[in-house]
Predict the 3D structure of the following.
Amino acid sequence: MSDNGIVSMATRPRNFWNPVRGVLVLALAAASALCVQRFAAGQDTQQRRADLQQRCDRLQQETTVPATWLAVAYPDGSEEIVVSGVRKFGADQRATPDDLIHIGSCTKAFTVHLLAILVEQGHLRWEQTIAEGLPQERDSIHEAFHGATLQQLVQHRASLPADAKNWHAHGRLALLERRSRIVQDNLREPPPEPPADGFRYSNLSYLVAARFAEQATGKTWEELMRREVFEPLGLSTAGFGPPGERRAITQPWGHALNKLAPGWLPLQIDNAEALGPAGTMHLALSDWLRFARLYAGGKNRDGGQRIDTTQPGNVSAESLQRIITPASPNGYASGWIVKSDGGDAEQLGHAGSNNFWFATILIDRKAGTVCVAAANGFSETVAERASQTVQELQRSFR
């Protein structure tokens, strides 16, 4: 299989666990008939961790994926991270709770967070159109796209194609120019017929949205993420692309099901660098929980109230509300799928995969909890069982 073929497959939302079909159906669905063991109010930390480890072991055994991780941020400010399995199929190195996890399309929530910060700084406007935000590309973009706004782009309501024709195009160019050329290549023609409800899940939309930021600042999306989000929030493990060193087992490898023999095929492959804003991030689960707490409405890891919205790296209460307000009947807001209760966002979720990893997150703002499941391999079974496990975990706190 060619490298281009692998990445093309990995970037199609219908293949990498379409969040509308996946998280919305499984992680944000009404309670199913599954038996859920609830955490007792007086349950001690040791019991709680043992229960979480048992769930993680069961997920790994049922899916046969090399390793699975479960992480929970509790309402009291504490957290637990457990793991079961190995970093690489056929190797002895055990996976650890501190390992770096590739989060695929869950990157989108971080991209929206960055854009909100830049809006608050005055670099961007949510109502800014493609014609206004992309002066370098405007003359090469079909006029039918000119009126689409930054807000519509991150809500998947700008009628853009789902993906670029070739995410690896213009590979010899510097990243800023490469992304600019890819936008021009893919927006020259009129937009495809929009769906009846106006929603089309689009990785390309997130690249275009990130180009607003890149043109406004002259910095790459990666540079902006480090400067405006990772460093201020203390997300020291966050980065881009496959975790770890090439051809080494310093971090977990991604895996695909081996079609020629039983087991899994270890691979250190990711989406094209140009797709970054839509899905190339990795980080330790402790840092992912730290970020998610900004949206959870509970307490922080030190036991105090949720991180002050005036802190660098966070967004204002107004921006947060804009981000988590659904724009589509399916519940998609901006980088999050939302389940509402009486008009308020009750649960936030998303899932992501580059076809070699799977990760899913569910934030319960009512309970003040965050639950994450991840695996260093992808299959439909892994996606389904991991999403079910997160759903079961969240229901155990209700």
Notes: The longest helix spans residues 45-63. The longest strand covers residues 344-352. The chain has one domain: 3-123+236-395. The mean pLDDT is 88.
